[in-house]
Structure formats: structure tokens, C-alpha cells
Amino acid sequence: MEGRQAVRELLLAGTRRTREVLLAGDLDPAPILDDIIDLADEAKVPIREVTRNKFENLARTESPQGVLALAQPLREYDFEDLLAPNADGSDPFLLLLDGVTDPGNLGAILRSAECAGVTGVILPRHRAAGVTATVAKAAAGAIEHLRMTRVAGLPWALTRMAEAGVWSVGLDAGGDAAIHRLSVADQPVALVMGAEGAGLSRLVRERCDTIVHIPLAGVLGSLNVSAAAAVALFEVARHRN
């Protein structure tokens, strides 16, 4: 885990054991660094200060902000658990990502998903970005609060969701209806996002219950996938609330 916000949320959530926090030795004082040190002390996590050169050799992202942590892997939830109502009885609000390959986009999408109240994220095991240090940093700690799982194939997952009574809504520029006219948003629902450029794959598109689009008023014909995900997620959240 790298980046100040990501490490802070890792320690704050406490959902997995953190083995060690490393700080670059030339950092200027900052309130978030004080938070990280206090949270690590409270959780009895060792803190080690290292030289800038050693820190840069250990880091995996381009701008780790002088902070990284070593922790247990994320918990991978069972797919079937994501189809059931939450502990508070609310219906599932799921997000499926069909082949998103850019780590920055994936991290930004996960951050929006957590803020919008998504109850579960489903990722393909193959031909897509996984949750790396770069993704975790871009997500700014959201991965600590999201239930996530990976499946061998999204078409199978969509079929199983239909059997469980979860509506699947694909987002694509050629969708029949506008996202703000979605009538099933307040029911068990899954938003399905396609890959950068290519959009939804053929089989995934065919398995979706409906395809919607985001109305655009400018000259450009599409949004970045992370921006489109944010718009669609919060539109669904608006209906649910």
C-alpha cells in the first residue's frame, strides 16, 4: 500500500493486519502524517524511517508521497454473498467491470464506487487490471471499505445475478435509454462498465437486462471510463436514496 491517504485508510479500517509502515526520512511535517503515526502506534504497527533512496527502491508507484505500508492481502469475498441483501437489509448495488485495464482508471472507479454506496464490486480474473499498489493509491483507501471478488467470466456472473433477481444495467454510448430514466435503480441492481475504448464485450452486452447511456451535450462523443462510472454510479445512488 502506497500513498498517504491509502495508508491512513488501511490503518483506520483495521480490516487486515498491517505488518509495517515505512516513511521516507526527508518528509516535511503534515497533519496526515501525524494521523498515520498515531494510528500505527494505536494498532501496535512498527514504523520505520528509511533514507529516500531506499524508500524509492521499495516503492512500486510513481508518487508514493513518502509513505508505504506492508499488509496482508485483501479479503476476496464469495460471489454469492454479494447477491444477498446487506446486513442492514438494503438491496445489492453492484458494480461489474468488463476489462478495465488501466490501473489509474480502476482506482478512480473504485473510489467513486465506495463514495456512491456500492455494496460489491465484481472483477474478471483475466484480461483486466487487478488491485495493485497503483490501483490502491488511486482509490485513496476505498479498497479497504469495498467488498470485492473476481470471477472467471462476467457472462456467467450476469446469468447468475439474473437468477438471483438482480437487474444488470450496461452503460454504453449506444444504449436505448438515458441513465437518469433508469426505472430499476431502486431495486437490486448491478451497473456494468465496459473497457476503455472497446466498451462492453459482445457476450456481456447480450447478458445485460438493459443498456443505458449518459446524454452528452458537447462535441466529444464519449467520457473517460472513470468519469462515466462516477456519473452513472451517483445517478443510481440518487434513485436509491
Notes on the protein architecture:
With 241 residues, this protein is of the alpha/beta class. The protein has two domains: 4-71, 60s Ribosomal Protein L30, Chain: A, CATH 3.30.1330; 79-240, Alpha/beta knot. 36% of the residues lie in helices and 19% in strands. It has nine helices and ten strands. α5 links the parallel β4 (93-97) and β5. The longest helix has 16 residues, at 225-240.
Write the layout of secondary structure elements.
Blueprint: H1 4-13, E1 18-24, H2 31-42, E2 47-50, H3 52-58, E3 67-71, H4 79-82, E4 93-97, H5 103-116, E5 120-124, H6 133-139, E6 148-151, H7 154-163, E7 167-171, E8 177-178, E9 189-193, H8 202-207, E10 210-213, H9 225-240
Helix pairs in contact: 1-2, 5-6, 5-9
Q: What is the total domain count?
A: 2
Reading the helices and strands in chain order gives HEHEHEHEHEHEHEEEHEH
Query: Which fold does the CATH topology of the largest domain refer to?
Result: Alpha/beta knot
Structural class: alpha/beta
Number of DSSP helical runs: 9
Could you tell me the strand content as a percent range?
A: 15-25%
Stretches where pLDDT is under 50 for at least 5 consecutive residues are: none
CATH homologous superfamily assignment of the largest domain: SPOUT methyltransferase, trefoil knot domain
Distance between the termini: 33 Å
What's the architecture of the largest domain in CATH terms? Answer: 3-Layer(aba) Sandwich
What portion of residues is helical? 25-40%
Pick out its properties:
7-stranded parallel beta sheet; Alpha/beta knot; alpha/beta; 60s Ribosomal Protein L30, Chain: A; 241 residues; 3-stranded mixed beta sheet
